[in-house]
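The protein record quoted in full:
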Amino acid sequence: MPITNKILIDEMDDGMDEKLNSLGYDAYSIKKLRAEGKKLHTDYSVINYAKENNMILITRDTESGQACEENDLPCVLLDNDEIFKIVIEKLKSF
């Protein structure tokens, strides 16, 4: 098993939870949790849910990423800066 932490996937990346689960991670999708009746419609409730459940949040939402940073919550922010770093790394291989 890769890690024991639970992972919460923001709705923009719904489906990543399934891919992570297939690799042995314990990942959950906000979109699927909403479908189960969880009230996760605001950034605050999403961040609070991640905190209460000891989860790592994966998001593209810069505001959520900043809120995680300010509150010492584990987060993977997939913002334009992170995507740009990937592009630069890929370009180095040519």
About this structure: The chain has one domain: 6-91.
